[in-house]
Amino acid sequence: MPPLLFSPAGAIILAAGGAKGMAKLNYKQKANLQRIALLAPGVLLYGVFNFIPLLALLVLCLVDWPGIGPMKFVGFDNFAQLFGNPYFRDQLVKAFAQNLIFFVIIIASMLILGTIFALLLSFRTWGRNTYRSIFFLPYPLAGAAVAFLLELIVRTRGPLNVLLTKGLHVVDQPIGFLGDPNLALATLATFYSWHRMSFAIILILSAVVAVRMHLLEAAMLDGANRWQTLKAVVFPVLAPAFILITVIVMVDVFNNADYTLILMGPEGAPARATDIMGTFLFRSAFGGSATSVNVNFGMSAAIGLVTALVILPAALFLALRNMRREK
Question: How far is C-alpha 193 from the geometric centre of its chain's CA atoms?
Answer without folding.
Answer: 11
